[in-house]
Amino acid sequence: MKSLQEAFPAWTDEPYVHWSAHVSLYSAKTRAYMTKKGLNYVECTPGSQPRFNEVIKPAMGYFGIPVLDLPNGTFISDTTAIIRYLEAQHPEPAMQPTDPVMRALAWLIFNYGTEGLFLQCQHYRWSFKDSADFAASDIGRALASPDPKDAKKIEQGGADYEAMKLGRFPDQVGITAETIPAIEKSTASLLEKLDLHFRYFPYVLGGRPSIGDCALMEVLHAHLGRDIHPADIMKKTAPVLYRWTETMNRPGIQDAELSQVPKEFLTADKLPNSLIDLLRMICMDFGAQFEATAKAYEDWLASEPDRAEGAIIASGDAAINRQAMGKMEYKLRGVKVRRDAWPDVINMHQYVLEVVDAMKEPELARWNEIMELVGGEVFLKYRPSRSVVIKKDQPPYGYVLGPKTA
């Protein structure tokens, strides 16, 4: 019989503390990651213990979850920073394929899952009263302090959060009467393609979970899989996808319905049609957003070329917890979207480039071939003029400018 250490190689005696909430979009990503990684962790909502409001929030200067408390007393905010840290600390079990092409695809899907579905998740949560009421109540419970039984405080906290979100819809997020049909069309396509893929494979890259699955859990579990209106749609139109959200929230790799699938990642020379179709959709729906974000970042750089290394990447008085570099415009399913551009999309693209730059010639040729096949040329072409550095374990707890290149 295997020992506990053999069965859970990432297990530690001292648990991590995951400051989070089940209603939280980004918390679903780190929760799924730590669960599938087999890490020892406990969860606390921000209002349940004094440390978050007395220590963590003042140090960051803003409210944001998830936050990971480390056993040494320090903490990290931001899902990407948390996962990058944990991957370095606990390389096994593998959550990134060893095949460089598949690893680059994992980071591309990671970027898409993290920020490419933001309109979808916000629309389906806040545009429908039953979902909005459910989410507002859940948010109120997560934030309530010191007494979670205080019904009025819970109700007011949820209502304030809902009003804030709805107020940001048109200008900051780009959700309007004109864009909603495109958002819903894009969402229906995603559900259809993933439901088909998960009929044959338990995870997005084959027989074992990856960082790409974890990023997709943000929207597909925390919003579309829990909120009343979209969860009903998913259960009716994509029941296999819904089942995947359950699988991603429990430890272990083996999936009950697909236990015969080898617990291995797919290889780049044998991509199934279901994954190719998903990648085509990602490139179509996320590619334009990515290209517009890249332009906004380069425009921001050009507006003040001599910015120092470490400068916060934001325009004007943009909040540090959602750093806007300015406005961008792109088309989703033929409809123009105007919204804020965020630097984390560029930061995550750098991790794709990091893998690509280490590829050998045959691997690079296959990467280029796949990207051209699925319409992902924009991801091949763009390289940021200056790097976007993630500083989420120390002030300013945000995205800052990297050094100038020679």
Describe the structure.
- The chain has 406 residues and is of the alpha+beta class.
- It is built from 16 helices and eight strands.
- The protein has a domain at 4-89: Glutaredoxin, CATH 3.40.30.10.
- The chain is 52% helix and 8% strand.
- The mean pLDDT is 92.
**What is the CA-atom radius of gyration, in angstroms?**
20 Å
Q: Which structural class fits the helix and strand makeup?
A: alpha+beta
How many distinct beta strands?
A: 8
Runs in which pLDDT lies below 50 for 5 or more consecutive residues are none
Major sheet characteristics: 4 strands, mixed
Strand order of the largest sheet: 2-1-3-4
| Coarse shape | globular
Distance between the termini: 56 Å
CATH topology term of the domain at 4-89: Glutaredoxin
Into which percentage range does the β-strand content fall? 5-15%
The level 1 CATH classification of the domain at 4-89 is Alpha Beta
Relevant terms:
alpha+beta; Glutaredoxin; four-stranded mixed beta sheet; 8% strand; 406 residues; two-stranded antiparallel ribbon
Q: In brief, what are we looking at here?
A:
This protein is α+β, with helices and mostly antiparallel strands. The protein is built from 16 helices and eight strands.
